[in-house]
């Protein structure tokens, strides 16, 4: 993972610094230049995305699928083009496999409700892992309780990897669906998703992958992964918040009942009966987040312009630098040391609680996240109440990482470790 | 980092390092858990109160320096006090930590408590400082848990 990103360095000399694409990175916080290391919570937005959204609102705004008038058709076109961009981004076979949702959370709830619930009954099992975000635990737990099914949890090793042997043994005839994070938001671990999907497929079990933390960092190809469902949120991918993507295999989506009822998802309505549209519209009840979807399309275009390989190489460089720097700090433990990981580092200090670390870093203008990261069961597995987490994007710099490390030494001095 | 120094005063750091009256109290007559779902701070307040007065009190905290120090300071302040006196102290604390008006801080009168006033400049941390006091209130009222939400 930690290969030298030489081509990035070369291209960077010619191209303008990508940091200048992000207006917020020019901000000061508490009188110091902002160091934004909370990218796993949400990424910052480049000017082109901000402009695309505001241009839509200023000059193109109309509702979609509803009007014969020019603006409505133009907006519908732009919305559909965003869908096509998302399909291309994930290498889906057709645009019809791409459903716009409010985000990862809604996408998982949609699958749990419309795909999971009808096929899960008493005594069945839903298999997840011990490193899931609450968004990939709670919807399944709710369905399991309703259906009398069991939520089964694949264990995580001390290094922060799913125990593949244990996972294999948990797959069985009672397993009705497997739902796994592609990349952990706490540990940064890249799970061997392709292999884990293949293992589930040997038993004919459908698989959902939560890609919220994967898409910003690694190339994702849903056909290569061979998963049945894949989810992500626009706001973690340099796009606006309030919109996300559910990829679903066409034949599975076609057989699923609607998630919500309302306008846009129907063919014909009478008080006796309603017939529903085909996917993806069947799952997009009501006016969607049109400007958000179009903004997501602009974010995907932006990533293509920067070059995803270059971004990933840059992140690998940042991860290597941060791992080295943090490793030198006395009393610091990195939580999650899988060989395959993205640029996310959770850590604890012997001297200070993560909450105190967060406050002290904030006073230095450095934004990280402290807490349980919506993964309380994983905190229990790690045996810590909380961690501090620094998560990087390609626009971060090694200098920012040095500031992080220096301030952590300051924390140690303050708590006289 | 002036504001930071106000927050992490030596008194706070010392209570954080060596919390007074920590651990479990067995037997106890009153007990309540405090939980801050936002950051995962967790504590339990134990009381032995055979009559009107608190005879023994402990606070077991798993959390940040502010919540640990606040719990520790709390135990030193309410031991031996009657329920009515404790209610008054709690009212004063709420005023001190999150009241509208900038409080008058009197080191001689308020002692270690005055050191908590630094959280006022850190709105995200006020709940850490009040958690033990909310749990104390719950314990006195016979509730089993309190959260900061
Ligand atoms: C792994 C993972 N899954 C799901 C989510 C939920 O995403 P959202 O809040 O955008 O729905 C997140 C984001 O916090 C995440 O990191």
What is the second-level CATH architecture of chain B? Alpha-Beta Complex
Which oligomeric state applies?
A: heterodimer
Low-confidence stretches of chain A: 1-13
The total beta strand count of chain B reads: 4
Q: Output the number of helix runs of chain B.
A: 6
Biggest interface, chains and residues, is: A-B, 19 and 21 residues
Q: Based on helices, strands and strand pairing, what is the structural class of chain A? A: alpha/beta
SS strand fraction of chain A:
15-25%
Structural class of chain B: alpha+beta
One letter per element, helices H and strands E, the order of chain B comes to HHEEEHHHHE
Looking at CATH, the homologous superfamily of the largest domain in chain A is Type I PLP-dependent aspartate aminotransferase-like (Major domain)
Mean pLDDT of chain A: 94
Query: Which radius of gyration of chain A do the C-alpha atoms yield?
Result: 22 Å
Q: Within the largest sheet of chain B, what's the order of strands? A: 3-2-1-4
Q: Return the CATH topology of chain B.
A: Sufe protein. Chain: A
**Helical residues, percent of chain A:** 25-40%
The number of domains of chain A is: 2
Rough outline of chain B: globular
Strand count, sense and barrel status of the largest sheet of chain B are:
4 strands, mixed
**Lateral strand order in the biggest sheet of chain A:** 4-10-9-8-7-5-6
């Amino acid at each position: 993972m930690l290969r030298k990103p030489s081509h990035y360095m070369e291209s960077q000399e010619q191209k303008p610094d990508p940091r200048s694409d992000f207006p917020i990175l020019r901000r000061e916080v508490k009188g110091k230049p902002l160091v934004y290391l909370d990218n796993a919570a949400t990424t910052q937005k480049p000017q082109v995305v901000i402009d695309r959204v505001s241009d839509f609102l200023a000059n193109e705004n109309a509702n979609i699928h509803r009007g014969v008038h020019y603006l409505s058709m133009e907006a519908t076109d732009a919305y559909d083009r965003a869908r096509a961009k998302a399909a291309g981004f994930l290498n889906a076979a057709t645009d019809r496999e791409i459903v716009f949702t409010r985000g990862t959370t809604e996408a998982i709830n949609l699958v749990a409700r419309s795909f999971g619930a009808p096929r899960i009954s008493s005594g069945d099992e839903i298999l997840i892992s011990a490193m899931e975000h609450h968004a990939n635990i709670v919807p399944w737990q709710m369905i399991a309780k309703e259906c009398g099914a069991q939520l089964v949890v694949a264990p995580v090793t001390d290094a922060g990897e799913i125990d593949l042997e244990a996972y294999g043994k948990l797959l069985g005839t009672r397993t009705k669906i497997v739902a796994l994070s592609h990349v952990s938001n706490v540990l940064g671990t890249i799970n061997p998703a392709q292999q884990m999907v293949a293992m589930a497929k040997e038993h004919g079990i459908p698989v959902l992958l939560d890609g919220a933390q994967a898409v910003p960092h690694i190339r994702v190809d849903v056909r290569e992964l061979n998963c049945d469902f894949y989810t992500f949120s626009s706001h973690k991918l340099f796009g606006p918040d309030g919109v996300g993507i559910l990829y679903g295999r066409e034949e599975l989506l076609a057989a699923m009942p609607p998630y919500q009822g309302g306008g846009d998802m129907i063919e014909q309505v009478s008080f006796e009966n309603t017939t529903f549209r085909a996917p993806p519209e069947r799952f997009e009840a009501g006016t969607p987040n049109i400007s958000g979807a179009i903004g997501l399309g602009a974010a995907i275009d932006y990533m293509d312009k920067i070059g995803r390989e270059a971004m990933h190489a840059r992140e690998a460089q940042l991860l290597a630098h941060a791992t080295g720097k943090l490793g030198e700090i006395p009393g610091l433990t990195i939580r999650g040391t899988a060989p395959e990981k993205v640029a996310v580092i959770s850590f604890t200090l012997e001297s200070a609680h993560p909450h105190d670390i967060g406050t002290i870093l904030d006073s230095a203008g450095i934004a990280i996240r402290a807490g349980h990261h919506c993964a309380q069961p994983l905190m229990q597995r790690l045996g810590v109440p909380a961690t501090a987490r620094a998560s990087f994007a390609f626009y971060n710099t090694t200098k920012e990482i040095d500031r992080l490390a220096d301030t952590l030494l300051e924390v140690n001095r303050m708590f006289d470790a | 980092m002036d504001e930071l120094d106000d927050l992490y005063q030596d008194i706070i750091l010392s209570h954080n390092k060596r919390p007074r009256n920590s651990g479990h109290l067995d037997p106890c007559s009153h007990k309540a858990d405090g939980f801050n779902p936002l950051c995962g701070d967790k504590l339990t307040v134990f009381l032995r109160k055979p009559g009107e007065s608190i005879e023994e009190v402990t606070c077991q905290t798993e959390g940040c320096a502010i919540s640990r120090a606040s719990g520790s300071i709390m135990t030193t302040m309410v031991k031996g006090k009657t329920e009515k006196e404790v209610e008054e102290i709690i009212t004063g604390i709420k005023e001190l930590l999150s009241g509208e008006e900038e409080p008058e801080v009197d080191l001689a009168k308020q002692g270690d408590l005055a050191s908590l006033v630094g959280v006022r400049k850190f709105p995200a941390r006020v709940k850490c400082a009040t958690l033990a006091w909310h749990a104390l209130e719950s314990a006195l009222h016979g509730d089993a848990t309190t959260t900061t939400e």
